[in-house]
Amino acid sequence: MTQDEGLAKTYLGDAYAAHAAHARKTGLLQDCPALSIDQATLLVWRTADTSRDFRIRSHAGQLTKSELRISRMLDVAVDLLPRSIAQPIDRVVSVPVDEMPGLQREYRMGRMVVWETLRSCSSSAAFRGRGNVAFIVTHRSGRVIGPYSWHPEEDEVLLPAGCRFRVGPTVEADLQRFEISLEEIL
Predict the structure, then answer these.
(1) How many helices (H) and strands (E) does the chain have?
(2) Helix (H/G/I), strand (E/B), else coil: 170
């Protein structure tokens, strides 16, 4: 028995059963037999709206010790998913207008950036209107989670923690909307 066995069940509590059932129902365990039930359950949970607070704390580097273990379990599980061949994929976010200048400085053309945490993207352009910043990503390490997701219509692709990108052109749709091109480098 590994140190992390049962951690997902403890962390998710009552929600564990629903996420595990969804992983079984969608065929995730059948299609990816290397995944444990805990890994599959965490992957499904990660695609659900209920993981929003965890994602926010993760991106801010504010996870508790048990959440860091959950994050590491997710990183391992993502590597067991099939590779995505969809190109490009999008990550759409809402950035407060007063934070836009800092984002523009961070994502200057030619600059290298690292996404330190697991990121969710979509291979469907239908979701670009949901936020004011769209990262248009040409990737090499994206993993397919869409068919198993709580929101299969999003055609979700997960980018593992630590992805490095070269920033390409930025298109300014208006003063408050941007599209930023990123190319993953290995």
Answers:
(1) 7, 8
(2) strand
Cβ partners under 8 Å of residue 23, min gap 6: 29, 37, 40, 41, 43, 44, 148
* Shared-domain flag, residues 38 and 123: no
- Of 96, 87, 86, 113, give the one whose Cα is nearest residue 170: 113
Instruction: Tell me the sheet residues that pair with 121.
Output: 157
Two structure tokens written together for 89: 């994929």
Shared domain for 16 and 53, answered yes or no, is yes
Q: 36 is in which domain, residue-wise? A: 7-78
Q: Which two tokens stand for residue 167?
A: 């920033």
Token pair listed for 149: 């997701």
Q: What's the pLDDT tens digit per position in 34-91?
A: 999 999 999 999 998 888 888 888 888 898 998 999 999 999 999 999 999 999 999 9
* Cβ atoms 106, 153 nearer than 8 A: no
Q: What are phi and psi of 13, to 5 degrees?
A: 60, -130
- In DSSP terms, 163 is beta-bridged to 115
pTM: 0.90
